[in-house]
Amino acid sequence: MASKIKVKEQILDLPKVEDARGNLSFIEEGGQIPFKIARVYWISDVPAGQKRGSHAFKTQEEIIIALSGSFDVVLNDGKETRTYQLNRAYKALYVPAKMWRTLENFATNSVCLVISSGAYNEDEYIRNFKKFKQFLKIEEGQTKVNTLESESIQECKTIVQNNTVFGCSQIELPTIKSRAGNLTPIHCSVDIPFDVKRVFFVYDIPYGKTRGMHAHKQCHQFLLAASGSFDVELDDGKSKRSISVNRPTEGIHVLPGIWSKEYNYSSGAICLVLASEAYTEEDYIRKYSDFKKIYGN
């Protein structure tokens, strides 16, 4: 009798906050994410018939989400091939290390979001399937418990009263272009000036609706348009500044103590946000009158 193959990958149901202004889903370190976030990247503009991936990681874990459109994730653990179709922004696939994975069957205008436990390191990749099988044989029979290092993330000490709208910078992101599509990576505290603990995205936004309209006391955010476009109005209590966000390779670093609202969403727009803190209601300032009392003097 054949031994049962232990399935390590897992479909995750993400929270879906339904709202007349558009839906919001999020995923947090220490919540749905079983590892410390080191890198976030997304793949877009994948031509019909092209495949992405076709590699395995030695130690890195991943979470994969279809922000827009759909695609298939084909996994192979060295013994069996399994296929998962991702086509909802509130569904995610956790992929453990030592798993060969390929992304294929991309629908038009699909955007694939990947959250990874490791920074880019070519030594982590196994790009040849035969070498992947050899790697698994070497690992076979050895009992290894991978313990994630507990790294303390320095709490943001920004004095929010000193932040202004002119300190909220637009950041151009690196983009790796190929005939199989574009890949835009963000390494925590490298491409953006903070570590990411929470990722959320707003989608299915009706015409004319406005999102945001709050400030954070300690949380840094990085906003970008994973698809479509929208405008961001920043307000520090004394000055205002409006910025158009219209490509997935550039975003805005919104500092703590800045009131922001997002509006003028195009059809099919997706607002992707990387945040420095897990969700706590205490970090929000939701009334503009309260915001003005604190920051408007």
UniProtKB/TrEMBL annotation:
Gene3D superfamilies tied to this protein: Jelly Rolls
One Pfam family this sequence matches: FdtA
Bilayer-crossing regions: none
SUPFAM superfamilies in UniProt: RmlC-like cupins
Annotated signal peptide: none
InterPro entries recorded: QdtA_cupin_dom, RmlC-like_jellyroll, RmlC_Cupin_sf
UniProt domain Sugar 3,4-ketoisomerase QdtA cupin: residue ranges: 9-136, 168-294
The organism's place on the tree of life at top rank: Bacteria
Annotated protein name in UniProt: WxcM-like protein
Natural source organism: Dysgonomonas alginatilytica
